[in-house]
Amino acid sequence: MTEVTIARETSFNAPAPAPTAVEPVRTEPRPLSLDEAIRNACGRIAPLWPLDSFVAVNPFLGFTGHTFPEAHGLMKRIAGVSLLMPRAFYREALATGRITDADLARAITQSGARLTLEAVKQAAAQESPAPRPDAATLAEVLDQVQGTTWADTVQAELSRWCAAYFDQGQAPWAMPWRQLPLHAAWRAAALHDRTPEVLGLSGFRARVAELPEDPVQVIATVLESLKVPTRAAEPYLHRALLSVGGWAAYTRYRGWGAELAGGWDNGLIELLAIRLTWEWALHSLQLDAQARPKWRAAVERMAALATNAVPEPRDSAELVLHQAYELAFQRELTSQLGRDRPVAAAGRPPVQAAFCIDVRSEVYRRALESVAPETETIGFAGFFGFPIEYVPLGGERGTAQCPVLLNPSIIVREAVAGATEAEQERLTGLRLMRRQLQTIWSSFRASAVSCFSFVEAAGLGYAVSLVRDSLGLSPGGAQPGTQGLGPEVLGRLGPRLEPDEHGGRKTGLALGSRITSAEAVLKAMSLRWGFARLVMLCGHGSTTVNNPHAAGLDCGACGGNTGEANARFAAAILNDAQVRAGLADRGLEIPADTWFLAALHDTTTDDIRLFDVERVPASHAADLGRLKDWLERASGQARAERAPRLGLAGTRAIDQAVRRRGRDWAQVRPEWGLAGNAAFIAAPRARTRGLNLGGRAFLHSYDWRQDTTGSVLELIMTAPMVVASWINLQYFGSTVNNAAFGCGNKVLHNVVGRLGVLQGHGGDLQTGLPLQSVHDGARFVHEPLRLSVFIEAPEEAMNRVLSTRPEVRRLVDHGWLHLFAIVDDGRRIRRYAGDLRWADERSAVWPPHVSSA
To answer: Across the chain, what does the average pLDDT equal?
Structure first.
């Protein structure tokens, strides 16, 4: 039997404060050991967050150790999946002039491809060749030879079982083995389940009983029986995981959470062992003389693939075409950045408004600056630098209000302002009672015993609500966190700053920590002086109904939640007199007449909601009134700009029409989310003010002259830039191949386990974005462009970050994003050319590792 060197307690996900993609073990020509093959195969899987916290994830996270062309070649040969658009897409871009001959020439030079301009054009005129993968599972080989459907059967059975095991309360009856680890639970169930035998695998239970209980030993045993050598193990195991890729991604998410908590989780290895057990049974019970040589040939191809992962020559033309497509966009954007821009009004601004760097904020910031030119807008991550877990009133645990790269370090409890301890307890008890009644009522309506009698007895009572919802006239559902509370209490809810203890956990922040946090946040926002009388901290969220992926429209920086809690917590700290005194002692003085005001931008309706306005000093009443007027006008202007993309061009009552979309349960596109995102710009607002960037740019305020230590630059390049790249690559993947990296047609979605969706009634758990998030039914609304990052900072400062942060350098050096430096006060733009080298944008040769044709 093949020697196994993985210890039981070893996870392929090494615990770390912020998990990243597992770096593949690249040790050619030495053959990989089995443990390395398992680690590499599992490391290729990107995590999938559940629906209640659905956030953007880079679907190529496990490939960042490879260049983009290498990953493209690997995925074509392992999964038969391209990372590029069909050639017809680039052919159209050439025909319309979007890609010019100059763009093609530059792309050929930068890629190092030995192709002529005419050769690339000829390739574009041809149709894309169908990918022919070299990797295969035994189930797929049997289907090809015998005309069976074992691959679909195995996927359906595993999906059904995973849905029951991972269920988060959707099923009224829970699986009895859920307390066991993943593989042990499946094995216990499989020893009783006769379904595989009914499907044709007679003796399946006996075959399962013959295998070891240890999942790693199961993998070794199956590889030995199927005669898969260790040099072919990695592509074979990767292919096996991709056959249940959605559930593998969700299992990877569970491991990610365990790592953030300082632990480990071997669930993905256990899922792999389950998948291979089906291979073992098929090998024992179905592999015949006709299929055996086909399987041997497949194994030989996988062994060759493990040592020959570079892109094939025929891919070079497609890669050149795509690079030319991206160069065309960069050419247009750099032209915009080089234009003269209006100078901001001199003197103290009456209002400063800090928005999330989300691309949807770019539209609103521009609208606000248009109606109130004297205002100053700021771009910053929507969690406002406070990685909190926000525990609602009456709750024991809360939501993680921070990017998924971070673990919440602050626990904040919701409290009722001005309430005595007795009143706080009474309101908490009342809320819990109402929630319990709501749960009982929901269970009664949905239970197998009472649901039919409920429909007969009370069904007509829902007729009015059904008609109202169908006509888009309903007021919409309750806002998250408001259930069980009356309007008289909701206005008094807010974050509790003072340290306390709740459920054995420390909550709130001590004064010293509040001062330190406030100082770090203001410095990161490049806001150390010149404060306005009103400083609005505006998070964002979305209003939709009947939308399983609603969290994906909320703030990614807040873990797929709205930014309300973070904005209110940050404003409360910055308004704290003791905090301000401590900041002044550290040389950061906030004027006495400056007031921080929390707000929330509804990206579906473009309405702005202001919080805690009753606490605004009476001296600022006129300022507040003027701000409300500006926001109302800016909201109308932003809605008018977005209306054509929503199909509302020419609509008379645009405001009502836009708001109605969020209340329409049948609306598949309540808003476009972050579709179109293509650039990240970290610079003073003066560099982009007055430019219409079309809601396509993440805008982060940054003044490198204030950043004397370079710490803010490092923060930007390791957190917001990486998160923006995740978002960008999720939209990229969902566009270039929605079947592989997206989740298909949302009209056909069925929610499973409250954690994901299936396409139709079965199949694998779906990942990525629905097709409707990137396509309007006639054309793609999102352009598949890797993120172009422009940072106004010295090149040597960025090189220091890249030198010390290898996970960031891999993204840049391997071509997963494009990096540019804005230098000489915006007069020049330099392109990162790889290996810590920079060149003038027009002459850079990049990326340095692309293989030539």
So the answer is: 89
What is the spatial order of strands in the sheet that 493-495 belongs to? 399-401, 388-391, 410-416, 493-495
pTM of the full predicted structure? Answer: 0.92
Contact 696, 379 (CB under 8 A): no
Q: How far apart are CA 250 and CA 743, in angstroms?
A: 14
pLDDT band at 852 (very low <50, low <70, confident <90, very high): very low
Of 81, 58, 40, the C-alpha closest to 315 is 81
| Cα distance between residue 782 and residue 42, in whole Å | 30
Q: How many helices (H) and strands (E) does the chain have?
A: 31, 19
Of residues 635, 612, 630, the one with CA closest to residue 364 = 635
In whole angstroms, give the CA distance from residue 367 to residue 653: 19
Q: Whole-angstrom Cα distance, residue 388 to residue 553? A: 20
| 835: alpha, beta or left? (left if phi > 0; alpha if psi -120 to 50) | left
684, 687, 689, 694: CA torsion to nearest 10: -110
Band of residue 261 on the pLDDT scale cut at 50, 70, 90: confident
Rounded Cα–Cα distance for residues 184 and 274 (Å) = 10
Nearest CA-CA partner of 231 in 327, 136, 302: 302
Selection from 44, 77, 74 nearest residue 59 by Cα: 44
Q: pLDDT (tens digit, 9 = 90+) per residue, 190-234?
A: 999 999 999 999 999 999 999 999 999 999 999 999 999 999 999
Q: Please confirm whether the linkage preceding 644 is cis (ω < 30° from 0).
A: no
Q: How confident is the model at residue 17 (pLDDT cuts 50, 70, 90)?
A: very low
Would you give the end-to-end CA distance of the chain in angstroms? 42
What angle in degrees, to the nearest 10, is found between the helix axes of 34-43 and 267-285?
A: 110
For 495, the 3-state DSSP assignment is: strand
Q: How confident is the model at residue 469 (pLDDT cuts 50, 70, 90)?
A: low
Q: How far is CA 83 from CA 64, 74, 90, 379, 734, in A?
A: 14, 10, 14, 31, 10
| Amino acid (1-letter code) at residue 234 | E
At position 413, the amino acid (one-letter code) is: R
Nearest one of 492, 480, 476 to 539, comparing CA atoms: 480
Q: How would you label 12-51 residue by residue, b for 16+ Cβ within 10 Å and e otherwise?
A: bbeeeebbbbbebbeeeeebbbbbbbbbbbbbbbbbbbbb
Tokens of 254: 């569970």
Residues 77, 315: Cα–Cα separation, whole Å: 12
Tokens matching residue 140: 């797929």
CA distances for 103 relative to 189, 322, 616, 671, angstroms: 58, 10, 54, 33
From CA 702, how far away is CA 440, in angstroms rounded?
A: 51
CA-based R_g, the chain, Å: 28
Q: H or E element: which one contains 76?
A: helix 68-79
DSSP single-letter state for residue 602? E
Query: What is the average per-residue pLDDT within 650-679?
Result: 93
User: How many whole angstroms separate alpha carbon 767 and alpha carbon 49?
Assistant: 9
